[in-house]
Amino acid sequence: MSKRSNENQTDLSSKQHVSEDEKASLLFNPKLWTKEFKDDMKSTILNNKPFEWGCIDDLVDDQLLRDIRTEVETQIQFTEKETDIYKVNQSGDLANLSNLDSETLQRLPNLFKLQQILYSNKFRDFMSYITQSGPLSNCKVDLSVNTYKKGCHLLVHDDVIGSRRISFIIYLPDPNRKWKDHYGGGLRLFPTVDFNIPHSDPVAKLVPQFNQFAFFKIQPGYSWHDVEEVKVDKHRLSIQGWYHIPQEADLSGFIPGEEKSWLKQNDSLVDTDMKNFTFPSIERPLLTEDTSSIMTLTNEDNKYLSKYLSSYYLKSETINQLKDKFLTNSFISIEDFLNDEMSSSLQKLIKYNELNEPIPTKLEQVEQPWDLARPPHKWQFLYLNGDDSKSELNSELIKLKTFFQSLQFKKYILKITDLLPMTQDILVRRFRPGFDYTLADTPDLNKKIDDLLECILEGTLSLTPFDGWINEGNGGYQLYMLNEAELREDQVSGNDSILINKPASWNSFNLVMRDAAVLEFIKYVGFNSKGSRWDVKMSWDVKDTQEDSEDEE
Amino acid sequence: MAKRTRALGLSKSRKQQKTTSSSKENDEEREKSATPQLNIEVEENENADNVTVQLIGLWNSYLDSSRDSDALLNGIVNECDTLLSGDVDNEDLKKDDQFLAVFALALSELTIFNPKKVHEYFEDSLQIVKLYSGDGENDLLNVVESKIIFQRIPLEYISKLEEDSNAKIDVNLLKLIELGQSKFNKSMSQLISTDEKKYANEKFINGLIIENISIFNDLVDIVENFGSKKNLDEGLDSEAESDEEDGDMEDNTVQLTATHPLYKVQEELDGKSVWLRNEMIEFLTSLVVDTKSYYYISKLIGESFLKESEPFSDSYLKMVYDEEEDDEENEMNKSSIEASQTESIRLILQAIEYLTKAQDPENAESWAQLAEAYIDLGNVQDNESAEQEESYKKAEEILQKANVASHNKYQYILDNMNSDSLSKEVENTNI
Fold it and tell me: How distant, in Å, are the alpha carbons of A47, A76, A107, A157, B236 from that of A71?
């Protein structure tokens, strides 16, 4: 009797399970369950470039998705979040839909239904088959709701985090209108130049439509992608998620040690040597000039410096004030750094270029003397890398670069910082709207030369001629902030971590002594900004002359 | 001179400052570094030590700023308040129309930052205008009063209305608008008159007139779109084209009942737009050519003509390009087709005249807007006529230039224009 009862129970539970799966399958497009479709998808994904990805139109019941859209619009508050790599509107409490309390779930019944069917056995099996990814976890649900409004973007990354196996996105823009290519917001896929080095230009782009499901296999070193900036005032609503390697709590598919070895393999990616693929080079060789005799600024030096710099900043009194500030704060900001004549002639030339010369939009279009900084998961901008006497602007910018490389300018830097430059790297950069940025990084300290301070002295002369950089959300600002490790140590958070936030501007010079705990980046310049951010970035490895004098004492 | 300690680098300097300064000092320092340097611009022939001159300078700075903080406004209001209440000889200040103007303007502007005090601040600012004890009616204060009225209507009254608000509110909105119009109308001409330039600070006067124009322009827009659900979920996007799907969108204009407080205003709206345009045309004659103000006002005038042309263009395009009707009906429509086309072309040409004046050599958007007007013109000219070809050609030339300057912002329109189905695509394309 009891045996029969047990059997009955087992049967019932199994039927219930099947029934849930069957229910889930009814909410998907029936085409998914045909063998022909599955095999076609499997083959397409395998042969797709630049890595294994796929896309399914009309994935789920149209009404379900419309209801979810309404639910999201009426029930969820989004907050704009911005870091070096993205700008996106996230729903705080829905960062991960798996952790919702019952009250929230009641407000979002259709969204919860979608979560259930996406992680149902039937659909996971389908995904596992068409991507040939192996089993996918049922218990590790990883789903979030995002909306990309005008200006939102997510720069190049590979999604390789933890036990993620497949990335997927369901798009929910306005169901009654076609989302057009020029709205932006496309999912772009990048080939690799070499293992773990993405190319600067994407080779595939998906223009999102309502009820479209895009996905790709997470392939460490290869699955490089981004979300193109949304360029118009429209909402690109999406539900984004990941399927994970089966966990111990899963009923099936768990293989002891599988996740650990996956993580170990991915950890080794961090050590990929990027040196041969990084442009411009980040090496800073020892200066060949004899810098030991540059302690004093002669009249001749001042005469040379005044060709470029405002005479106000060459007065001894001003120099002393600047030095006081720098010694106290390790940072100074100088407005109207170049003299009026130089400033107005450069501004005229840069503006003319902005308004009359087309910008290169692909690596192959970048012409000498400019080059494209790459790889894009580190930075992307145009930089001067050669000579050109044909273009007046290029020629003037090269002269400006030569000026900042001069011994006289290094003497000036020494005067206002008490730091002796031992190496130098001067870059004239242009950050094109809709393309360019640098990602946050700690400084590359020079270990090849002895007795250097464990800091880099960095100067940035912003030469951005057009306005519209403050409060208009177009990025282009330079941010210095404490890195996370430092944050934990100091137990500070939020805006306390931001040390300097400097919008793009005209003729403004920042001088910063950056130590290893300070991250710096130039925020992605938005498509709708009036023009490019232009600047000259200077880096010097330095010796402390105060230390020397103390030693001598 | 400061001697650097061994703690070097930005992060360590910050940490050191944190531990050595009190939190108050830190806050002050942060505040100081966050507060932009303020330079008060004073006209050459003005006395920089005069308090009214300084207050006008501060007000002008506010107008030039991104207007996202009330710090400057509070500064102006507090200073004015102190002067007016503290000065035993404050009768002089009551005769100083510029002082009262800045005080009232700054106070009325504070309503933007203090939604709970909208009524109080508007009332107080009108009281300040009335404090004037100089000779006769004052043109400057009339224009200040019109600004307050135009700003008050949407902020204090329309903001409280629903589509179905039939309850009477304690003001007649149409009459209030007309009061503002009459004050602006007679005094603006005096203020810009070259015969008697009473005020040295031209920027202040022009800024005030532009504020009036801008606020009235917004008011017309608000009333026109009142209750409209159009694009509510996605926001209005000037850059998005109205495509085929948009063309099929249902008309979301809300019909107000005759008892609705805005009903009469909506009925009179076309007349209000024409009134504003005429005021702008008069004001434009006083502005220096090729200045930001000149471009801005020219642009608004051009847009106003374009808007007026829309129903004529729509009607013409519908009659000419929509499904064929029988001959008898065609014959009947022929005269109205011609009438619509003529009126549409007349208005678009006037728009082009002003949008040409609005061409800012450093603003590609102004070029693109002119190109759009040429496309509109081409659309209503006879199909495949030489005139139409010429209009499209001009549009394309201008747009190509704008596209380069704006890093390919208009590429999709150029692509549309160059496609085989040129006229049809262009017809449905707005920039």
Answer: 37, 8, 8, 30, 22
Mark yes or no for CB contact A331/B2 under 8 Å. no
If you count residue pairs, one on A and one on B, with CB atoms under 8 Å apart, how many are there? 123
Q: Which residues of A touch B362 (CB under 8 A)?
A: 351, 355, 466
As for the ipTM of the complex, it is 0.86
**pLDDT per residue as tens, chain B (431 positions):** 555 543 457 777 766 665 554 444 444 443 344 344 566 777 777 777 888 999 999 999 999 888 888 999 999 999 999 998 876 667 888 889 999 999 999 999 999 999 999 999 999 999 999 998 888 889 999 999 999 999 999 999 999 888 877 767 788 999 999 999 999 998 999 999 866 667 888 899 999 999 999 999 999 999 998 877 644 444 434 444 444 444 444 556 778 888 899 999 999 999 999 999 999 999 999 999 999 999 999 999 999 999 999 999 999 998 888 766 666 666 667 888 899 999 999 999 999 999 999 999 999 999 999 999 999 999 999 999 999 999 999 999 999 999 999 999 999 999 988 874 444 434 444 44
Paired tokens of A237 = 């609503």
The answer to whether the CB atoms of B245 and A181 lie below 8 A apart is: no
Nearest neighbour of B236 by CB, restricted to A177, A233, A470? A233
* DSSP assignment string, A23-46: HHHHTB-GGGGSHHHHHHHHHHHH
Of B359, B353, B200, nearest to B289 by C-alpha is B359
- B118, with CB counted inside 10 A (0-12, 13-18, 19+), is buried
